[in-house]
Write the structure tokens for this entry.
Amino acid sequence: MSTAIYTRRLVEHRYGRPLEKLQRGNASCRSDDPVLPILLRRLDGLAQTGADARSARRNLDAAWQRHRSGEHALDDLVLLYATEVVDLERQEQSEAEAVWDLLDVRLLLDRPSAQRPSAPAPDDQDLLAIAREVADGLDRLNREALRRGLRDRGIHISNRRLGAVLQRLRAESTSH
């Protein structure tokens, strides 16, 4: 899997929506996420660099095949394509790391602050009750184990809601 595809899937996973929906939401200004527009621009650049790298690899392969068939000796063209592939792969990795850093910034921004309530909304009491049942059956209470337990019961929730529920459960366990 290419770095660009992996990074796209990571973004979709972290936001819980396909990239197309994220782009539509950003275009219609329905997102209050300050990181999303920057992340989408970086992701577009990464996709373009990935496409350029694939093209350069095809050009290098074609030049190498011509060389192997005896059409011409190893020359500047093959070296040029090889250099281009190396440069584009480095650029692709650098751009991917920038997107990953933005995802980390987004996670930091999503942490509850003193102004934002950390507990689930009152209408989430059913979710909280089910989450308590799941947590009782866990050896260790962490995000992934709780998510798996909820999914086993047919409940799929966003990262933000899961974080609030997890924080509430941890607070309850320390108060007992």
